[in-house]
Amino acid sequence: MVSAGLEIVIGGVVDPEFGPMIMTGLGGVFVEVMKDVSFRICPITRSDAEEMLAELRGVALLRGVRGRAPVSTEAVIDTLLKIGGESGLLTKSADEIAEIDINPLIVTQTSATAVDARFILQHDAEG
What we know:
By secondary structure, this protein is of the alpha+beta class. The protein has 6 helices and 6 strands, in the order ββαβααααβββα.
């Protein structure tokens, strides 16, 4: 039902020492096989989100390779900021959310669509 695109993963966890942290990488089987991910402590800035994407070994896939069109890094950055930015869901709700897992986030040339997401609340993680 969603247009074909590149699968990205965005996750978050509230670490007991560092507080809320956000992660991104190539999604689907890529995250399991390649473990190509980048982490930051929240809140992140636009610059942090750009650096996270640039750190990925698979960054060429975002830019378009072998005749494939580039995907919207702006849509990924926007999603990262909505989760881990200063006003982001994980940043503002760190006392309620234990983990966030969006995998895959399907990214096309113009948009990003969360196809599957899992949220674990703090009280679920404790009991």
